[in-house]
Amino acid sequence: AKRAGRGRFRVFETGMDAALRDRRELEIDLRRASALKQFDVHYQPFVDLYTNRVIGFEALIRWDHPVRGRVSPVDFIPLAEETGLICKIGEWVLRTACATAMTWPEEMTVAVNISPVQFRSDALVQTVLSALAHSGLPAHRLEIEITEGALLENTANVLATLHALRDLGIKISMDDFGTGYSSLSYLQKFPFNKIKIDRSFVQGADEGGDSEAILKAIAGLGLSLGMAITAEGVETQEQLARIRSEQCTHVQGYFTGRPMSADSISTFLSA
Ligand code: C2E
Ligand code: CA
Ligand code: CA
Ligand code: CA
């Protein structure tokens, strides 16, 4: 009787209650996912527009939930951040990515996303050092991607962390540039090697107008500051031609390669 009652109650649940319950369930599953080996890392190539060669891959986490199927990182990374689980998950991604990159041709780099929560943790530099030592990957083959969210508070600490990473020889990319709280002064204040232009500007530029102007401006700025510029989300020949003419230095998008499993990389590279 109790079961039936609960079942009936669910029908009248408000959307809010259902969302909360869903979130709690997802959180419980997320806590278990590492132990159950439900995470995987996929890798998306980035191409140098000067040589037209693949020069590295971005590591992107995948979660295969036993019931929900594949859950997008867009949906579970925020939850992992709120619960602090991101530090453990992020460390696992970093170690996995460094170890995988050791199986690639020697000059190729791997880029790893670091959440603002992870970035602010005291353990970050130590964690990175340990992943490098453990895998044997030379520091110059590792890139770290951070978003503006990592730069908002405590400039002194942020600078100290960025310089510590740079001193090790690690490259640092400003991810999703142009979205969120973007401030041009960040590019001057913090030691980035690369700017990644968010795909909304790349794809929006198809219609001309503001997105195209912003794309042009960011690329021009990066160029004059001596930074590499990656255009994200390039899906078509036309978009590739445009970002080339805007003097972007690198491209990443479905057109040049979708994220793929570690096992598919050698086939992809020899194709
Ligand atoms: P991001 O760092 O901006 O990564 C690029 C996202 O764009 C990836 O989505 C990628 O699959 C997608 N993408 C690449 N090329 C194209 C394209 O041509 N068209 C379209 N429509 N999409 C494209 P994904 O893998 O779903 O990841 C989403 C976001 O989740 C990432 O955005 C990043 O913010 C976060 N994320 C993924 N893996 C990790 C991780 O290991 N750690 C952390 N902290 N965040 C991660
Ligand atoms: Ca990224
Ligand atoms: Ca991005
Ligand atoms: Ca993004």
Structure description:
With 271 residues, this protein is an alpha/beta fold. Helices cover 48% and strands 21% of the residues. The chain has helices at 2-12, 15-33, 73-83, 86-101, 116-120, 124-135, 155-168, 184-189, 199-204, 209-224, 237-245, 265-270, and strands spanning 39-48, 53-65, 69-71, 109-113, 142-146, 171-177, 194-197, 228-232, 250-252, 260-261. The protein has an 8-stranded mixed β-barrel. Strand 1 (39-48) and strand 2 form a beta hairpin. Helix 4 (86-101) runs parallel beside helix 6. The longest helix is centred in the first third of the chain and has 19 residues, at 15-33. The radius of gyration is 20 Å and the shape is globular. It starts with a helix and ends with a helix. The relative contact order is 0.11. The model has no long low-confidence stretch (mean pLDDT 92). The site of one calcium ion (CA) has 5 residues, from strand 6.
Measured distance between first and last alpha carbons? 62 Å
Proportion of residues in helical segments: 40-55%
Rg over CA atoms, rounded to whole Å, is: 20 Å
Structural class: alpha/beta
Shape: globular
The major β-sheet equals: 8 strands, mixed, barrel
Strand content: 15-25%
Q: Provide the residue-averaged pLDDT.
A: 92
Number of DSSP strands?
10
Sequence of secondary-structure elements? HHEEEHHEHHEHEHEHHEHEEH
Number of helical segments? 12
The stretches of 5 or more residues where confidence is low (pLDDT under 50) are none
